């Protein structure tokens, strides 16, 4: 079942065309990595899909009412804003806002506890979030998005700034969400992690989608040279995909 | 209800009663409270109902309004330095009042001044909404508010500058310092509907403000309608601040200091800060209004002067504490 459907999506900001005629469909059970060089429009594509920027074309999410959209998709922006020194638990509870009325139900509390456990924050729940390190704050914000428990999770560079263990753990957790029947669309700069953990990669560059498919088919030397301007070592090993960027062309 | 809310409510109630007991007419506490219940033309009853009761009620209305609007404004702008005057409503309400004094309208009939102040607030808020535009950004709202404040302030100065009437100038200067002295129940009835409406609007913003902790994008995808949130914030603030300024003049620092002071006690959650800050503001203005009657009873010390005198050092202390916590 499709959780995101984009047709002919185009965005121009201040007269400059960011991308045009983007078509993308994400199904339940998929873990999709969105990759592309700086300025390719990854963030804009995701925000346009959510209906947060003016766009041409069609997005299945943009037409929803704010409440319906909040139950369909959880969005984790790249800027990790936390305005007030609230506790981790209070922050993660915000993810339940689209679901609960005046008070949190038992199901809401359970979802918050699950999200905290997923991100290894169960023991830290009462700590003040603004006093944590950047990586810990990022994990708290991912937990907030998880607590929303939507069919689709969209995250803009969620693993930037995390240590390797938490980068891998977060990517594996996203994979598990997909295996459990939900869908994840995540923008990434680390092509190595993208190749290892995403079953499907979408490459955005030069004003449109340049490739869409499994990592082995997408990360060809030709595409890497054309879109990213790099060469890379890419091998299928018993330990899985190994992808290492090498040189700038 | 949490312990903090119970404590704040008790504090407001105690200060309200104390406010009824303090004044230049030396009336024994028991007599004065009995006087409230007694009707008729008995002098004690008159003093209580016509002078002290309106004053205490207005202190609660004005203080609650400033505290609540301050908490809402800080929550919306995600900035602890924001205050209700930021959107230009208090400056434009003050301008309306100044015009009423200068033109003689205030002397002509009792409600001339507060009604002109409300009209000023209305014009100010309309201009801010038009200037800030329909899309729900915070930055355009601040800029529009600053522009309106500056404009209203400049016209106020112009009126003072060109005034040929030294008595009017004197009255304007003293009015702008803010006070609750010599207000009547008529003032209460004028301010009450706007204040209650504004409280109702602002008190319902808690969820949206909580979501804004994560920034505008994340809040929007949590189901918050940002444009509507901003409109309600501006209208609610205009109601309460317009009404407060109309009956009491400009009273600074309450809307800035009270939310700041109470934030750590509510776990920094904007939704919990709203009611706490309303009670805290009411307590602060009640206490300040009692203090102006006790400190120099023979001179008419202005409420706004006292809140700023107490508020500014308190604020410096908070800044100092914040600085120590930072690395």
Can you give a write-up of this model?
The complex is a heterodimer of chains A (249) and B (327). By secondary structure, chain A is an alpha/beta fold. Chain A has one domain (2-84, 150-248): Rossmann fold, CATH 3.40.50. Chain A is built from 9 helices and 11 strands. Chain A has a 6-stranded mixed β-sheet with strand order 5-6-7-3-8-9, sandwiched between helices. A 3-stranded antiparallel β-sheet of chain A has the order 2-1-4, covered by helices on one side. A two-stranded antiparallel ribbon of chain A has the order 10-11. The longest helix of chain A is centred in the C-terminal third of the chain and has 16 residues, at 164-179. Chain A is globular and about 55 Å long. The relative contact order of chain A is 0.16. The mean pLDDT of chain A is 91. With 327 residues, chain B is mainly alpha-helical. Chain B has one domain (3-325): ABC transporter involved in vitamin B12 uptake, BtuC, CATH 1.10.3470.10. Chain B contains 15 helices and no strands. Chain B is globular, with a radius of gyration of 20 Å. Chain B starts with a helix and ends with a helix. The model of chain B has no long low-confidence stretch (mean pLDDT 89). The A-B interface holds A 47, 50, 52, 66-67, 69-71, 73-77, 79, 81-87, 90-91, 94-95, 97-98, 128, 141, 144, 148 and B 78, 207, 210-215, 217-218, 220-225, 263-264, 267-270.
């Amino acid at each position: 079942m499709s959780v995101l459907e984009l047709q002919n999506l185009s965005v121009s900001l201040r007269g400059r065309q960011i991308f045009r005629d983007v078509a993308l469909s994400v199904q339940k059970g998929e873990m999709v990595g969105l990759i592309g060089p700086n300025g390719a429009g990854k963030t804009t594509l995701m925000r346009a899909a959510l209906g947060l920027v003016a766009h041409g074309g069609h997005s299945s999410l943009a037409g929803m009412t704010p409440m319906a959209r909040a139950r369909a998709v959880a969005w984790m922006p790249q800027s990790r804003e936390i305005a007030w020194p609230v506790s981790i638990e209070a922050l993660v509870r915000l993810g339940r806002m689209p679901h609960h009325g005046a008070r949190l139900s038992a199901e809401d509390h359970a979802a918050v506890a699950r999200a905290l456990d997923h991100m290894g924050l169960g023991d830290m729940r009462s700590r003040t979030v603004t006093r944590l390190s950047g990586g810990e704050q990022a994990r708290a914000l991912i937990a907030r998005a998880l607590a929303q428990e939507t069919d689709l999770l969209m995250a803009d560079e969620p693993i930037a700034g995390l240590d390797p263990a938490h980068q891998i753990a977060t990517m594996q957790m996203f994979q598990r969400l997909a295996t459990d029947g939900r869908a994840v669309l995540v923008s990434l700069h680390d092509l190595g992690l993208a190749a290892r953990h995403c079953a499907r990669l979408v490459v955005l560059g030069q004003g449109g989608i340049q490739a869409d498919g499994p990592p082995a088919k997408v990360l060809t030397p030709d595409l890497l040279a054309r879109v990213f301007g790099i060469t890379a070592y890419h091998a299928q090993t018993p330990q899985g995909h190994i992808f290492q960027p090498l040189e700038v062309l | 209800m949490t312990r903090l809310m119970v404590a704040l409510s008790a504090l407001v109630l105690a200060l309200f009663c104390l406010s009824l007991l303090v004044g230049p007419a030396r009336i024994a506490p028991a007599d004065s409270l009995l006087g409230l219940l007694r009707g008729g033309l008995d002098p004690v009853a008159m003093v209580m109902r016509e002078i002290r009761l309106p004053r205490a009620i207005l202190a609660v209305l004005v203080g609650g309004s400033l505290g609540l609007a301050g908490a809402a404004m800080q929550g919306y702008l995600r900035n602890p330095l924001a205050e209700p005057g930021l959107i230009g409503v208090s400056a434009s309400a003050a301008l309306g009042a100044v015009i009423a004094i200068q033109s003689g309208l205030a002397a002509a009939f009792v409600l001339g001044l507060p009604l002109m102040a409300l009209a000023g607030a209305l014009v100010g808020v309309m201009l801010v909404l038009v200037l800030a535009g329909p899309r729900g950004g915070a930055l355009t709202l601040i800029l529009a508010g600053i522009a309106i404040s500056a404009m209203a302030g400049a016209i106020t100065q112009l009126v003072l500058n060109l005034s040929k009437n030294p008595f009017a100038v004197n009255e304007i200067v003293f009015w702008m310092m803010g006070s609750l002295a010599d207000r009547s129940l008529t003032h209460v009835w004028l301010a009450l509907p706007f204040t209650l409406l504004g409280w109702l609007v602002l008190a319902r913003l808690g969820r949206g403000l909580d979501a804004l902790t994560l920034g505008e994008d994340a809040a929007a995808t949590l189901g918050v309608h940002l444009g509507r949130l901003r409109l309600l914030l501006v209208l609610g603030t205009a109601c309460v601040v317009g009404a407060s300024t109309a009956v009491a003049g400009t009273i600074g620092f309450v809307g800035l200091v009270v939310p700041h002071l109470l934030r750590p006690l509510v776990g920094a959650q904007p939704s919990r800060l709203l009611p706490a800050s309303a009670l805290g503001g009411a307590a602060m203005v009640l206490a300040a209004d009692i203090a102006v009657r006790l400190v120099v009873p023979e001179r008419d010390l202005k409420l706004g002067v006292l809140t700023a005198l107490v508020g500014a050092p308190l604020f410096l202390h908070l800044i100092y504490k914040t600085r120590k916590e930072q690395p």
